[in-house]
Amino acid sequence: MPTRVHEFSWPDRVVIGTIGVPGARTFYLQVRTGANIVSIALEKEQSALLAEKIDEVLDQLITIDGNPFSVPTSTPIELVDNDPLEAPHEQFRTGAMTLDWDPTTAQIVIEAYPLSDVDPDDIDEPLNENSANENSANETEMMLVRMPVGTARAFAKRTREIVGAGRPACPLCGYPMDADGHDCTLPEA
Fold this sequence. Notes:
Elements lengths: L2 E6 L4 E7 L6 E8 L2 E7 L1 H19 L27 E13 L4 E8 L14 H9 L2 E9 H16 L25
Parallel strand pairs: 1-7, 4-5
Antiparallel strand pairs: 2-3, 3-4, 5-6, 6-7
């Protein structure tokens, strides 16, 4: 089965954004180069972890003597992107993601793969002619994004802000509170 790779080596824009109201938001990783826009859905937790790990990688790179990759310690003001998403069309829902560092280009590398629709019990079943034709039509996809260190720092900052803009936590139980009320159950002492 061929894999369709949505590759962005020096994107014009790479952001996490949401559609919907707090408590019912859909998170998207959206990347654009020119007129080519790809949006993939992901979980809030995936978004938060991605921002955290990007900052960890960048903070570790700063500690290298002389900071040879010119990693900024904070978000460069010219790279701040507070604009909303561009009408997302979900390419796929993200399952596994990887994060890497490419020292040859001084870029953070994100790979995102869709949730698997493969039933593990079907793997050993022989393919008949009809299923072979169905599989060729259902190619797999992935997204590969490379972003320079300043863009990566801005991406992480925006992502933390987007994740934090959800429902406020209850000061008593810690669970999210809805706008229309909250049934708080305090933990037993």
